[in-house]
Every structure is written in structure tokens, then in C-alpha cells.
Amino acid sequence: MKVSLITLGCKVSQYDSAQLERMILGRGGEVVPPSPHSEAFLICGCAVTDKAVKEAKQVSRRLRRLNPRAPVILYGCIGELAHRSGEENAFPPRDKEGVLLKLGLKGKAEDALPSWHRTRGVVKVQDGCDRFCSFCIVPHLRGKPQSRKLEEVIKEVEELSRAGFKEVVLTGVHLSSYGKDLHESLDIFSLLEALEKIPGIERIRLSSMEPVDLDREKIIQLGRISKLCPHFHLPLQSGSDRILKSMNRGYTLYHYLSLVDACRSTWPDPAITTDIMVGFPGETEEDFQLTLKALETVGFARIHAFRYSPRPFTLAENFPDQVEDKVKKERMVRLRLLASKLSLAYQEKFLGKVLPVLLEELSSPNEGEGYTPNYIRVKVQSEEPLACNTIVPVRIYSITDICLGETI
Ligand code: SF4
After folding, report:
1. Domain termination site, one of 76, 102, 128
2. What is the CATH number of the domain that holds 30?
3. Separation of 62 CA from ligand 1 center, angstroms?
């Protein structure tokens, strides 16, 4: 069975897709690029925004034209959404077994280790969420929080270490709630404490942490994990307390700023990155101004901005005062301009400084690219030959679209 696997969406989706790839290969299937010879197409996709669903549908139409005889299977959040509207060949995130059966690949669907092709191994430690932010479809598609057992995660990270990975990225739908559903003494800190003892792993990165789960003490506690990258993705969504309340986010801007302050007093110049939602129902120009002000106050290293779109099953779908599309678009332009300015200002702090870069790819023996612990992508030049998957000290000498640096 020649299966073409297309992955769209977040790190959780990438992890699920990589895991399915291993399972397909382990049961005698082949994973091939999409072509008229593909015998099945498998889209592992996202349904978080209306735009993501449209993208998945477009991809699906293109694949159907490529080989009309091959089934197009939808899996993941998009699979759950399509399954609920009665579509065939649609499978929810927790039904990998169903996908394999549909492909005619028999065997037990045990949790196989995904195969990562780069230098950073992603490990999903948790799935599901029960926060029910009023705009978010995810709890309706992925169900209650479900953490993976500590021993299982340790085993997977040990395997990644044996395979040569130096960095692991911990991911989950609601990562900061890790452990709560398993044992009262288990949390993200105890998980990190256990993982940092694994030899060979030099960096641990957290993909995202919900501000509602954090406080100053927890952040200061995280400062004890020496392998933890000083890169914190804390989704703010809005700088207006009125909108945060309507979103059911469970925190105020004041609380959020106290977390940023705690990060900054624990690590020198950590990267604080965020998600911002533009045009949530009822967002006035004044609310939006508050968001812009909050972004400047924090000085985010990177901002992922997206337009609100009503999602099925969510409370906000029926909120009055939906914001017009042209207003959302105009706010997005203003927000993106500010985001680029802030990102550049953050990177400029490191001009002339030496940072360790984990080389991910080489374009020639003396040139490569990789990331610093605080997630700055650097193009590295060196008089000596470079090697992929090594950490080299690099002096940053220029900042344009990408940081440039040379080994010292
Ligand atoms: S915390 Fe909120 S935004 Fe994040 S997955 Fe849960 S409901 Fe969605």
C-alpha cells in the first residue's frame, strides 16, 4: 500500500502524523510523495480556524484530481470535524487504529516512536483540553486532558537521545496541565526534572504554556532546570481584560505581565513569544489599542497573529458584535507591522554577542543554519568545516531578515 501523507497544522499534528508514518512503515506500507501512483492519501490536518479547514479541503480536492481512484482519508482535528458531519474516511485524533484498518494495514497500533528527520525531536506528552476558551474548537475535538505516563515519556526521550538528538521539544494541546489527570504530585516541573537527567539531551524546549496555569513561583521553579531553553510561548490572545474575560481565558493582563516579569528575572533576555487573536466578537478599536500597547510593553520576540473565525460548537460563534472582515484585515496589517518591529528589536539585543547554535542544516561545508536556545534562527559561517547536529559558539554580526553569525 503506497500512502501519501500530508501534514498540516501545529506540533501536535506533526507528532501524530510522524507517529502514523512509523506505524504504516511498521505494518509493511510505504510512505511516498503524492503522485498519480499513490494508492491512498492521508491528510493529518488542523481545524482550529476556518482558514485551516479551507486549506485542508483545497489540498483534498487537489489530491483527488491527482488520482481519483485513491481514497482521501482525513485524520486529526480535521478528521474529527468531518466525522461529525457524517463524512466517510474521516478519523478523530485518537483513532489511529481506524486509519490503519482503512489502509488495510493490520497489526497492533502501539505507540511507535515517530521518526524525526531533523535535529529536534518533538515529543507529545499530553493531549486534550478542558479549558473551553469561548473561541476554541479544540476541547470539542480532542476531548479531556490525557497525559502520557512519565515512564513512557522518559523512554521516548531516551530513544531520541540514542538516535543522536540533542534537543527535544515537549508539546501537547494543553502542555502546562501535564500530569494533573495522572497524579497530584506530577506536573510539568517534575517531568522536566526527570528528562534533564537523560544523558545526550542538551536542550529541552516547551512548545507553549497557558498563562492561566502559571504563576511567579512556578516560573522561578522552572529556572532550576538547567537544560530548559529560555524560550516561552505564552499565548496572550488579547491585551484587553474585557476581551480576555469574554474569551474565558481565566487571567488578566496584569497576571500575564507578572509572568513575563518572572521570566525576565529568572533568565537573562529570554524569548517571550505569543499568539494574538484579532477581531474577537466585540473587540473595539480601544480594545485593539490595548493589545498593541501590551505587545509593546512586553516586547515580544515573535508574535503569531491570526484572525478570529467563528468555529462550530463554541460559545463565541453565537456572540453578537461579530467584527467585520475588513476591520479584522486592517488590524492584522497594523499588528504585523508592530510584530516585525518588535522581533527585530529583540534580535538586535544580541548583536556582537556569542550564542550557542544547534546546526540543523548545511548549505555548504562552511555554511549552515540553526537555532539558539532562545529560538533565533542564525545563518552561520565558519572557516572550519561545520557538522550538522552540533552546537557551535557563534558571534552574531548582522541582523536582517535572518541573523548572520560566525563561529569563534
Ligand atoms: S487552553 Fe483554550 S485555546 Fe488552548 S486548547 Fe484549551 S480551549 Fe483551546
Report:
1. 102
2. 3.40.50.2300
3. 31
Query: How many whole angstroms separate alpha carbon 54 and alpha carbon 77?
Result: 13
Measured distance CA(67)–CA(100) in Å, rounded: 20
Query: Would the CB of 131 count as within 6 Å of ligand 1?
Result: yes
Give me ligand 1 centre to Cα 286, in Å.
25
Residue 132 Cβ contacting ligand 1 at under 6 Å:
yes
Is residue 136 a part of any domain in this protein? yes
Mean pLDDT of the chain: 93
Cell numbers linked to 273: 513569544
Looking at the structure of the chain, the number of domains it has is 4
SS3 string of 64-87?
Answer: HHHCCCCCEEEEEHHHHHHHHCCC
* Class of residue 48 by CB neighbours under 10 A (exposed 0-12, middle 13-18, buried 19+): buried
Higher-scoring residue by pLDDT: 58, 115: 58
**CATH number, position 377:** 2.40.50
Are 17 and 81 contained in the same domain? yes
Cell numbers of 244, please?
A: 480576555
Asked whether residue 97 falls in the same domain as residue 126, the answer is no
Domain with 344 in it: 259-349
Distance from the alpha carbon of residue 155 to the mean position of ligand 1, in angstroms: 28
- Contact 173 CB / ligand 1 (< 6 Å): yes
Mutate to test the pocket of ligand 1, among 11, 174, 314 (most ligand atoms within 8 A of CB): 174
* Strand, coil or helix: 55: helix
223 and 120 housed in the same domain: yes
Q: What pTM does this model have?
A: 0.91
CA of 275 to the centre of ligand 1 (A): 12
For residue 17, how far is its CA from the centre of ligand 1 (angstroms)? 21
Domain end among 317, 349, 381: 349
Q: Is 290 in the pocket of ligand 1 (CB under 6 A)?
A: no
pLDDT, tens digit (0-9, with 9 covering 90-100), for 93-107: 889 889 999 999 877
Q: Which tens digit of pLDDT belongs to each residue from 20-66?
A: 988 898 888 999 999 999 999 999 988 888 889 999 999 999 999 99
Ligand 1 atom nearest to CA at 136: 8
**Distance of CA 184 to CAs 51, 80, 117, 155, 180, Å?**
38, 30, 36, 22, 6
